[in-house]
Structure formats: structure tokens, C-alpha cells
Design a protein that fits this description.
10 strands, alpha/beta, six-stranded mixed β-sheet, binds guanosine-5'-monophosphate
């Protein structure tokens, strides 16, 4: 997706540990117009699937998922929570995730009542690095009878193992931009 690639090259920076900083449009300030174009792009890639729910993870996935959902007939967005909340009640689905940016392990949680048997679910997240966040979200869906249509990532770090792990599981994975490498703090896109 050229508009996204141009934005990454213009505004993205590289931090220690090959962390890509895109807080001017994706992780802090949100570029709603770009998100809307991303929504159109994801809709066209998954137009063959009857997606009726989007699953993401807090915090950065939420903003993009809600704009994308408008391109899937305003379907509901469910986001996995990363910490215990008094707002979570009834049966809870859990999965363990190791945080790439913080290096800690934590439970992600989704109330079971929001994942139904008839759901055709698209998972969305901002970044794919080692695949832990996606594997946790996939595990949550696999604990139910819902159908996982596939995963869509805004920025895949192609030099880390997540993409290969998810694709090897036979899960449809679409990434709108793939970073092949980082050379002398310069982002090299595929
Ligand atoms: P994974 O679970 O695939 O190892 O990492 C994905 C999660 O870690 C994403 O939800 C994202 O929030 C965060 N993440 C991983 N790599 C980066 C990065 O380079 N930049 C930013 N901003 N977040 C990242």
C-alpha cells in the first residue's frame, strides 16, 4: 500500500533494539485519513470473506480497528485486554503473551460472550514482530467455535520470525507494509 509505505519512510524512525517508532500517525497521534485508506485497502483484500467481527489488542490496535470496521458494514470490534479489569465479567478467555516491547509475559483476556459461534473474525494489529500478540489472539479464537478468517497487520517486521510462524500455521496473513531490514537506522521496505 503505497500511501502507507510513503508515510513510514517519511515519518518512521528507528529506536534501540530495532523498535520502529511511528507515533506521528499510528501509535500516539492517529492519522485518521490514512486509517480510512487502510480500511478501504483491507476491505478490498478481504472482500471475499463475510467478516462480521474484528478482534484486536489494546492499546494501539483499537483506533485502527474501529476505522477499519466501518468498511465491513460497521461490524463490532472486540479488543483483548492486557490487565485484569472489574469491567470483565462472566466467562473469560485467556492466553499468555510475551510483550515484544516490554519483555514481560502477561495474560490477554476477552469475555467469552463477545465471541460467538457464528462469528467470522478478522484479527488486526499494528505491528507483527515475533508473532506473540497474534498467536495469543488466535489462541483465544481457537478456544471457541468462531471462524478465524485471517490476520491483517499494518506493519510487518519481515526480519523477525512472526510472519513465518503465522503463515506456517496455514493462517491467512496480509501485511500492508513489510520492513525487510533496518540498515544504519534506515528503514528498508519490501
Ligand atoms: P509480537 O507479539 O509480534 O512480537 O509484537 C507485536 C506487538 O508488539 C504489537 O502489538 C506492537 O504493539 C508491539 N511492537 C512490536 N514491534 C514493534 C515496533 O517495532 N514498534 C512498535 N511501535 N511496536 C512494536
Amino acid at each position: 500500500m503505497q500511501l502507507l509505505k510513503d508515510t513510514i519512510l517519511r515519518e518512521g524512525t528507528v529506536k534501540d533494539g530495532n523498535i520502529i517508532k511511528v507515533d506521528s500517525f499510528l501509535n500516539h497521534q492517529l492519522d485518521v485519513k490514512l486509517f480510512n485508506e487502510i480500511g478501504k485497502e483491507i476491505q478490498s483484500r478481504f472482500s471475499d470473506c463475510k467478516i462480521n467481527k474484528i478482534l484486536t489488542i489494546e492499546a494501539s490496535g483499537i483506533g485502527i480497528a474501529t476505522i477499519v470496521a466501518q468498511h465491513f458494514d460497521f461490524c463490532p470490534v472486540v479488543f483483548a485486554k492486557k490487565s485484569k479489569s472489574k469491567n470483565l465479567d462472566g466467562e473469560i478467555l485467556y492466553s499468555k503473551v510475551e510483550s515484544f516491547t516490554k519483555g514481560t509475559v502477561f495474560d490477554i483476556q476477552v469475555a467469552k460472550k463477545f465471541i460467538n459461534e457464528s462469528d467470522n473474525i478478522l484479527i488486526i494489529d499494528d505491528f507483527l514482530a515475533n508473532g506473540q500478540a497474534l498467536l495469543g489472539l488466535i489462541d483465544i479464537i481457537e478456544q471457541t467455535s468462531a471462524n478465524l478468517v485471517g490476520c491483517c497487520i499494518i506493519i510487518e517486521k519481515g526480519f523477525q520470525s512472526g510472519g513465518e510462524i503465522i503463515r506456517k500455521k496455514g493462517i491467512r496473513l496480509e501485511s500492508l507494509a513489510i520492513i525487510d531490514s533496518v540498515e544504519n537506522s534506515k528503514i528498508i521496505l519490501r
